[in-house]
Backbone:
């Protein structure tokens, strides 16, 4: 089984020292967990106003690892000229997707800025990835807003922008999220990664809500799942453990762990 | 770096010393819930769960309400004696009635004490509970975390953290004290480092939904592998995965997954419900 990690990172988080955050060390760490390739962006771009220098740095850093590390552009739709950033990242630097940070770049995930940039990504056929959280808010530094992405807003965004492909990473509460609860969105093109979700048991006093991903899959959600780890913030093997106990057939597991992300990013990487 | 064999590590035997079963609407629901817990554990190599049913939110509930929560645990033990063990929840401010409840639960087969955030671990109101735990040779697991955001402290003003544990550990070095879930929210680096000079009987557990890389190694570096316990607090795959992935020796992981909990049980003359060699 091959694993493609839709949720990996390079660079620096200002509030905690991360290890294995360079291309070489990240790859080695992922390979230790049996993960062959990953989509990456620069962490610090989430906190920069002008994100393009970080995008340029990313493209240069991953160039020697083009078969294993797939660069994702960070776009700040509140910064003048973001359209040019997007064009250059896609057409010149060859980036296969975009990461957006509504919390850190201070815009609503269903607001006009988000709709414009997501619409532009849809026109280019680029997946848009939005982390639900970068770090656990309960340990937030006082300079970190410590808020999670509003999934109701993400649901509104998916409904509002035709042709969009959205991935929400590092989320909990997938079953109860608006993306799943709003039935009209179930046929749309969106996925969650499994990096922070549990599978067969979570603490819940409602016995109908104690199976998270297992229930999600039982209700038909397997098509909305992809493999992701949130490395180097998180331990990569935690995601491998989740994948190991997912209640799906082998062919479905292959899609979750490799095929779906490749398809959504139009990578055509051989398995 | 050598690739980890995840499947092999999933078969490795584990004792989850921090988990819960709940006081639900009826016994049928309690059975469904505990069976699902055991099933999920079997997939991960977890052979036994040390469970409690604490009253949360800092609520000073009645002694009767506390007793009812503990009866839930006793029912779960009776249903699943091979998989579920009990941690007796009490509110230390109930004083003699709390001590009586601990004795009742331990005499009924529970193996430890669970405290939540009604009192900090270093509050003198907790000292009689600690002294009884020493006498009965059982561990105390207390809900904990170094919270500093205003919104978090407002909701849990009396939550304990590493500095409180270190203080009590110095006062009662023979007490087996367990700082709960270093992955349960809050600054885990701070709370762990505060316990670096604690007695050999001061422990932390790695449970919680926070899967920050380096967490387990930090606990081992600061407190020693003999002082770090495996628990999930319901984060089943995440907690297993963080220990598997930690850059530690196999012996360190063996201590965390099994041997440290086994040593805590041995202090009171107890053993794991299933021998390690049978499940390995």
Residues:
């Amino acid at each position: 089984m091959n694993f493609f990690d839709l949720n990996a990172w390079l660079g620096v988080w200002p509030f905690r020292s991360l290890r294995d955050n360079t291309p070489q060390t990240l790859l080695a760490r992922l390979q230790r967990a049996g993960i062959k390739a990953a989509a990456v962006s620069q962490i610090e771009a989430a906190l920069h106003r002008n994100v393009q220098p970080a995008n340029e740095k990313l493209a240069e850093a991953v160039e020697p690892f083009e078969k294993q590390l797939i660069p994702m552009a960070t776009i700040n739709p509140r910064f003048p000229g973001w359209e040019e950033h997007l064009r250059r990242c896609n057409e010149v630097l060859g980036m296969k997707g975009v990461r957006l940070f509504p919390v850190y770049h201070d815009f609503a995930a269903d607001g006009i800025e988000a709709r414009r940039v997501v619409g532009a990504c849809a026109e280019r056929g680029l997946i848009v990835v939005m982390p639900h959280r970068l770090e656990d808010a309960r340990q937030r530094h006082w300079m970190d807003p410590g808020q999670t992405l509003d999934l109701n807003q993400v649901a509104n965004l998916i409904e509002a922008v035709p042709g969009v492909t959205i991935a929400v990473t590092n989320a909990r509460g997938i079953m109860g999220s608006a993306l799943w609860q709003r039935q009209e969105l179930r046929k749309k093109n969106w996925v969650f990664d499994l990096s922070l979700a549990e599978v067969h048991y979570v603490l819940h006093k409602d016995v109908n809500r104690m199976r998270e991903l297992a229930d999600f899959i039982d209700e038909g959600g397997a098509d909305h799942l992809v493999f992701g780890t949130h490395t180097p913030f998180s331990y990569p093997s935690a995601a491998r453990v989740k994948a190991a106990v997912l209640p799906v057939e082998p062919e479905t597991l292959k899609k979750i762990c490799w095929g779906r992300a490749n398809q959504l990013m139009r990578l055509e990487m051989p398995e | 770096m050598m690739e980890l064999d995840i499947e092999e590590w999933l078969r490795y035997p584990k004792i989850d010393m921090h988990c819960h079963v709940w006081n639900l609407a009826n016994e049928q629901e309690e059975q469904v819930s505990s069976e699902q817990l055991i099933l999920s554990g079997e997939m991960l190599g977890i052979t036994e769960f040390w469970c409690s049913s604490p009253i949360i939110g800092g609520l000073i509930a009645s002694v009767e309400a506390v007793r009812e929560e503990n009866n839930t645990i006793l029912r779960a033990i009776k249903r699943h004696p091979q998989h579920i063990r009990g941690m007796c929840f009490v509110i230390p401010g109930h004083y003699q009635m709390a001590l009586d409840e601990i004795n009742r639960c331990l005499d009924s087969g529970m193996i430890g004490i669970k405290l939540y955030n009604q009192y900090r671990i270093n509050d003198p109101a907790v000292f009689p509970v600690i002294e009884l735990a020493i006498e009965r040779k059982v561990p105390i697991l207390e809900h904990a975390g170094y919270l500093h955001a205003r919104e978090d402290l407002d909701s849990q003003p009396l939550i304990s953290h590493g500095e409180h544990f270190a203080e009590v550990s110095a006062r009662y070095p023979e007490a087996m004290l367990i700082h709960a879930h270093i992955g349960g929210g809050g600054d885990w680096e701070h709370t762990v480092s505060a316990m670096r000079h604690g007695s050999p009987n001061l422990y932390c557990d790695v449970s919680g939904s926070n899967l920050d890389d380096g967490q387990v190694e930090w606990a081992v570096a600061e407190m020693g592998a003999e002082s770090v316990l495996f628990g999930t607090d319901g984060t089943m795959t995440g907690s297993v995965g963080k220990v598997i992935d930690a850059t530690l020796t196999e012996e360190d992981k063996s201590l965390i997954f099994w041997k440290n909990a086994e040593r805590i049980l041995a202090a009171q003359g107890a053993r794991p419900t299933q021998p390690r060699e049978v499940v390995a």
Remarks:
- Residues 250-265 of chain A form the longest helix (16 residues).
- The CA atoms of residues 174 and 183 of chain A lie 14 Å apart.
